Amino acid sequence: MKREHKRIFMILVAAVVIVTSSVFLTSFQAGTTKEPVFPKPQQEVTPEPSIPEPERPVSPGLETPRDGAVIDHPLPEDPILTNGPWASAHFLMDEYACDCAGYCDGWPADMDPELLEKVEALRCVFDQPIIITSGVRCKRRNVEVGGIENSWHLSGHAADLYCPGVPYDEVAAAARELGLGVIEYPDQQFDHCEIWH
């Protein structure tokens, strides 16, 4: 009888070892074994003094800024693209593409090469980025943004732009010196630049 108990005990121990081993191997192969996590010793942290953020002035509504005033237009969100066909040394063609919600393929008309050349020259005058907010437009996009029926944007002869940190009237004056037609938008601090053909 003693032998029988010993044999049963050995079979049970072997079964437990086999089951435990197979569970371990299965979880090991699946990559789910976890190393034990030991608590890290706590370090004393000294709180940093908090510096309150300066309050931003509240604008009383849309007023026409005084001459020389600058609205802090942001640069485009990252990432700034640097691949694709170039319109000129500092501008990608995509910067001039129609920004509609997919009504067109982005190019309802070609951009005027003379406009591209003069906007590049304008960028070189200030030696800092100039942001194109609107280049060529399809008819539907032109209506959406309130453009006039015969807008030069429709034929690729116009671009709306601004230069961060530079007053819109200074940008307009430099654009006129380069031979561009300019309409200033002081309430929004940007300039519409165009080539008449």
From TrEMBL:
InterPro entries in UniProt: Peptidase_M15A_C (IPR013230), Zn_M74/Hedgehog-like (IPR009045)
Pfam families the record matches: Peptidase_M15_3
Region (Disordered): 35-67
Alphabetically ordered keywords of this record: Carboxypeptidase, Hydrolase, Protease
Gene Ontology MF: a single term: carboxypeptidase activity
Domain Peptidase M15A C-terminal: 90-180
The name this protein goes by in its record: D-Ala-D-Ala carboxypeptidase family metallohydrolase
Organism annotation: Eubacterium limosum
